[in-house]
Batch of 2 targets.
Target 1
Amino acid sequence: MKALIRRALPRAIRPRRIRGGPLRGVWLVTSWHDYPAGILGRTEGPLLDWFSNEVRPGDTWIDVGAHYGYTAFALTRLVGTGGRVFAFEPVAMTAGCVDQGRLLNRFDQLTVLPMGLGAANTLEVRRLPLTRGMADATHAGSTLAHVDATFARFDWVWPLVHGGNDTIHGIKIDVQGMELEVLDGMRDALRHWRPRIVVELHAGVSRERVLRLLSDAGYSGEATAIDPAHGESAPRLLDDRSYAFNPA
């Protein structure tokens, strides 16, 4: 039923004011088909609550997998004019929507980078399935339309874009199945800065490898569920849920 309703929603992408929630009134450039929950302001509630407790004015945050910019805009408001947010989005068209939203909202502290993060030492182009404005590796082999996107490792890109200030306070990652590649590509930054990390995990991603990689970078093996499942006493690292990790 949900899929049928989505197919009937308008596909025109244009600036729209978010209608409710913590970002009410913020401009979001998207379509009803691609992101109805974003337009209504009924998405990412637990994550935005976590941001409100963890993000400080003046911080530098990295948003990996920005989509249409909902979480990037939330981070941008929290870091304030003295902070910085760098939003990475591999789908060029979608990244353009985020940048248009940046201009409409006058978020000068936000930098939008039309590329994805992975484990490659230099730039590489990958063809991935495209769904609702997202490059989605979890749909490999599907009949969806595909998009060509540019990727590189964060540790290679960051010195080129940080503008002389390489400090990092936090990282949000939501990359539709590419979590391990992203984390592998930022090992140096994780070891050096020990930023707060929140990752949405997806089907097919090895939880053991995620925990081992984070442990090697100096993080605790304990995860904090951003939106715990009903009755969950300890995080089970479920699909399509976000978890926070702190330095050991």
Target 2
Amino acid sequence: MQQYKEEFIKFLVKSNALKFGDFTLKSGRKCPYFLNMGSFYNGSQIGRIGMYYAEALNEMVKDFDVIFGPAYKGIPLAVSAAAAMFKVFNKDVGYSYNRKEAKDHGEGGNIIGAPISKDTKLVIVDDVMTAGTALRESLELMKKLGGPTVKGVLIAVDRMERGQGKKSAIQEIKDEFGIDVYSICTIVEITQYLYKREIEGTIYIDEAKRTAIDGYRHEYGV
């Protein structure tokens, strides 16, 4: 596993963004872990999260000129990732995000930041994807903006579970739109890395939690 992935996993648990226990997801599924990227709210944290996104983008996507972050959680991710791309890789890319409601005064419109057109090569960043509903909304928005080339989608963690049907949400997106969805890490990588590993005096995944995660993946995983 790449070093930045290991550092990212440690960052998630130490920041309390990744928790293990009993959680009910929006889908109604009972899950033994929960990821809340909204836990990052200060400068040092958002700076580091941008670095991890930049590392993954540089490795997996490369050829793009705009990072698009869907409102609302995607906005700080796009901004921090764009800043990190310049700082770490000396690559100056634009960032852009949408309003939930179109502005009817001033310049109007619902896109802020770098302009998007049919000639734009962009990557979409977000936190997680369960059913892929939010991503579909972003892709529909792209059509209205002239149909830019979407080079890929990058999320923080691939939950590796079924979407609307028997396939994963990620596979459904690829089949429907022909777009690859990447992740900084997967739940399998997280589980393998944290299992019985002590991090600053804490073991986040013990035998019981590993069993619960395996059971959840057996029921909902792909």
